[in-house]
UniProtKB/TrEMBL annotation:
<feature type="region of interest" description="Disordered">
    <location>
        <begin position="461"/>
        <end position="528"/>
    </location>
</feature>
<dbReference type="InterPro" id="IPR020568">
    <property type="entry name" value="Ribosomal_Su5_D2-typ_SF"/>
</dbReference>
<feature type="compositionally biased region" description="Polar residues">
    <location>
        <begin position="230"/>
        <end position="241"/>
    </location>
</feature>
<dbReference type="InterPro" id="IPR041095">
    <property type="entry name" value="EFG_II"/>
</dbReference>
<protein>
    <recommendedName>
        <fullName>Tr-type G domain-containing protein</fullName>
    </recommendedName>
</protein>
<dbReference type="Pfam" id="PF14492">
    <property type="entry name" value="EFG_III"/>
</dbReference>
<dbReference type="InterPro" id="IPR000795">
    <property type="entry name" value="T_Tr_GTP-bd_dom"/>
</dbReference>
<dbReference type="InterPro" id="IPR000640">
    <property type="entry name" value="EFG_V-like"/>
</dbReference>
<dbReference type="InterPro" id="IPR014721">
    <property type="entry name" value="Ribsml_uS5_D2-typ_fold_subgr"/>
</dbReference>
<feature type="region of interest" description="Disordered">
    <location>
        <begin position="211"/>
        <end position="250"/>
    </location>
</feature>
<dbReference type="InterPro" id="IPR056752">
    <property type="entry name" value="EFL1"/>
</dbReference>
<dbReference type="InterPro" id="IPR035647">
    <property type="entry name" value="EFG_III/V"/>
</dbReference>
<dbReference type="Pfam" id="PF25118">
    <property type="entry name" value="EFL1"/>
</dbReference>
<dbReference type="InterPro" id="IPR009000">
    <property type="entry name" value="Transl_B-barrel_sf"/>
</dbReference>
<feature type="compositionally biased region" description="Basic and acidic residues">
    <location>
        <begin position="878"/>
        <end position="888"/>
    </location>
</feature>
<dbReference type="Pfam" id="PF00679">
    <property type="entry name" value="EFG_C"/>
</dbReference>
<dbReference type="InterPro" id="IPR027417">
    <property type="entry name" value="P-loop_NTPase"/>
</dbReference>
Amino acid sequence: MPVVNPEKLIGLQRNANEVRNICILAHVDHGKTSLTDALIATNGIISPKLAGKIRYLDSRPDEQLRGITMESSAISLYFSMLRRPTPDASPVQKEYLINLIDSPGHIDFSSEVSTASRLCDGVLLLVDAVEGVCSQTVTVLRQTWTEHLKPLLVINKVDRLITELKMSPGEAYKHLSKLLEQVNAVIGSFFQGERMEEDLQWRERAEERGAAAAATAKDQERAERKFASGSVTEESESVATTGAEGTFEEKDDEDLYFAPEKNNVIFSSAVDGWAFTIRQFASLYEKKLGIRRAVLEKVLWGDFYLEPKTKRVLGSKHLKGRALKPMFVQLVLGNIWAVYEATTGGSKGKGDPDMVEKITKSLSLTIPPHILRSRDPRAIMTTVFAAWLPLSTAILVSTIEHLPAPPAAQASRLPALIDASPGAKLIDPVIRDAMINIKATKDDPVVAYVSKIVAVPESQMPHNKRKAGSALTGEEARDLARKKRSEFENAQAALNGESPNDDLNGITEALGESSLNGTDDSPLAEGQQEDPEHLIGFARLYSGTLSVGDSVYVLPPKFSPAYPHATPEPQKVAVTGLYLLMGRGLVALTSVPAGVVFGIAGLEGHILKSGTLCSQLEGSVNLAGVNMGSQPIVRVALEPNNPGDLDKMIRGMKLLEQSDPCAQYEVLESGEHVILTAGEVHLERCLKDLRERYARCDIQAGEPIVPYRETVVSAAEMSPPKNKDLPRGTVIGVTSSKQITVRLRVRPLPASVTEFLEKNAGAVRRLYSEKKAEEESKRRTVMNAENETGAEQDEADGIPANDTGLLSILDFREKLRAVFSGAKCQESIWGNVVGKIAAFGPRRTGPNLLIDVTEEGTCQRFFQEAHEASEDETEPDPDGKPSADALHPRDFSDKIAYAFQLATAQGSMCHEPMQGVAVFLEEVTVTASSDEDSSMREKLGRLTGEVIKTVRDSIRQGFMDWSPRLMLAMYSVEIQASTEVLGRVYATLSRRHGRILTESLKEGTPFFTILSLLPVAESFGFSDEIRKRTSGAAQPQLVFSGFELLDEDPFWVPQTEEELEDFGEKGDRERISKKYVDAVRGRKGMLVQRKVVGDAEKQKTLKR
Ligand SMILES: Nc1nc2c(ncn2[C@@H]2O[C@H](COP(=O)(O)OP(=O)(O)OP(=O)(O)O)[C@@H](O)[C@H]2O)c(=O)[nH]1
Ligand SMILES: [Mg+2]
């Protein structure tokens, strides 16, 4: 097959109606990349023989090695087919451009899925016929739903039903219908959820309208009494009736579901290279059965049967007890099963050449004799299928017929998307119109979204290639494959004499590793030395035409048209290059029209991960979507082996942060350079990238740093309070100069309150930033304790104030009150604390409260309205400036609040953040100091540090008066395992302190789905261990699921006689919580109390 000329693709870009932008989504290993192979082969980029095996888009060597995709990659494909412009017209040849994005299915890279789907209009959603709906399948279905993408369902790996599960066609049909039901059930649940929400909103609106109408009626009544005016009556009546009349519109959900008869389901086998839709079979049987195609399309799936004599279609009612097979089984699956049986033997294990001949004759296929003679039955099978039901045809035809072109997709998708973007009301109507109607002239505004940045080495840039075009021409690819295959075969033969054909992965690996422009004349060695990376953005143009040299504004992810000039103010950046994305290579373009997925250069240093590009700033739209990807939680400190390489490493880490949608780079206070990744596999990939591409130096990674939370509980048996005269948790702290005494009490918060605070952290953050902005506008010079110490950075900045879906301050206060009164806790303590909350912490948004119960109200209250403050004379001076004459407790309010932030950020046990702790500030007293000469300000300055330290330590001390608990970061783990390996999976899980939640058998398969919780701290090496112990049969999926209390006091020691008797003096058994605490303390360089020598006597005896 000749390789498609890039010029042709570029030409097609101008014709938006002939473009399709699609991405392939699925659970890990369901066959996405194998499927794309077949499509790529149609463009001559790889040989059809290698399709399904080479996994061309997995271009990284580690992707090939592990067999999973780690980065999404895009490729533009050409496809031409005969289409009728109208149903009656004769078909004409039409050409299409398909921009295809292959995404990773592994959970660690789920942010790549969000970035891929943002650019596309349609989705190929793959499901493994055996594994069925898995966790990521649900995630990608949800992604498709929320992004309003049009999906096509591909049930892949149907061959496994024949070869592995050895099902008969009838059983397979039942299995496939169940699978389809499962997928539709997931969609149904989204639909229900949305409908219920709409219903609720509608009710609320109706109520509002009703109330408004009633109010108007009352007004009007009053008015009538006064003026007896007739015209008002009419108006108000009309209002009242509209309010009562409206009915909730039921939406039709018929179109949403997958149904083979609607041709939105494709059955396929990517490795064997076949796929079909019902429509294809309908046209195959149209003549044979003499039934119209339209009719056949409706009956080929479902309970319809073919009367063998009359060739009439019967419904299940008319069967009259006859044992006929459904048409799908008889006409569709039966034939496919027959091909397997005839060639590879299917479930029988041996092929039948006569049957092959019969089949090829009846399908009028011509199979080259050398293949028929071949001893490899798979070769015959794939050749039959390639001629009969080629994979690419089914997929590409369905894509073109079923998935929308950019104009249609933008018209239907964008209005909702634009309305949901921040500050939607202020978006320029011209921009809105241009985007929805995909206007692409030079004068229309340019709006593009960059969903991710990829790093491309200099040597791979188009200007350094021998010629523009895809990375490998068909001929080159074949050549290379041939060369590598023989190399590989030789190596294998030399090693163990085994047949090299067993492992095609090896070839592909070799292919993957080979340099792309790896012809011998290219200066490879030189390239490796000095090969700087270029950052290329993956983007989609929604309106206008973008050309090289144009300047556009780069809007950061938090941009809102409400504050277009907010800092950091968006910059105009010149576009230095535009590219066609061709999988492993790029093709330079001079301009791109709206509706296209393309690569863009010149954004280096202006964009981190993603952003919107727009030709104007005022009234611009921010397209940054909700990222459903996993949050990065695995932190690892890195250091270069050679200290001189530190700069290189830092540069590399910054590059990595830009080019990975999930990885983050941080410098800890201790000066350590840390990367945050989504999980172990992701971490490995990041390290590899750093070492080999971005930093190009040897880098050592430390032990993964796992986050913990510290909390306290009121346990049944606790050691007595440290200070017997004071209630538990109470501490009286005196500063070292004895001038200030602070009395406070630490208490555990009711669980429901903690939960509420955690859930609404976003709201707290926004409320805080609003308050701050308000205060700042009033007083520009606020003396701020943090500014002096400069320890904490502010997360709250830059959040658009009108974020939708968050609570207002009053709502929030009321809800919090309700939660407090709902919690079953002592009314006397928690009764009216909400009004007294002074701060949230740590970072001013966390799930801990500082509650000011001092008589004079030392601290400013969080929920206090500004006007309340000014009315109330006794309120503190919020400036925190010393009053004229003497020092007052209020002068220290901000210091106390800051100490609270510090203490909650670094708890007592191992300096991890606290959670669910309330600090009651009970009393602050200031004793006049002896040196009367120094001014107030000087005194205050001197006391600041003392107060902060005292309060911080007191809070930590009060914390330890209760029963402290560690909270562990948990992964929820989903594992699919067959019965044989189930035991080993359980053993591994329990050894790592995992907890099984559910276990269910997948219907019709021998697979169990196990859902469990596993501490992140125990998860390193878990996936590998499971894979090894089950010989690759089980693949765990780990998703961060929050923090969970480990109900064990790390510092508990046996005290009562009974306990001493039971546990011995040392509390023999090692406490897991103590182990974790010590590990963290050790890492942070804190004191770890350990008994090095347990029992010297015994050791002596042992030695002798
Ligand atoms: N039996 C069978 N195996 C298949 C089929 N399609 C893919 N596979 C195998 O499934 C494995 C995973 O295939 P990939 O194409 O890498 O799957 P993927 O969905 O791209 O995986 P990720 O990108 O890592 O999520 C490979 O070993 C393929 O050979 C199929 O139709 N039938
Ligand atoms: Mg893949």
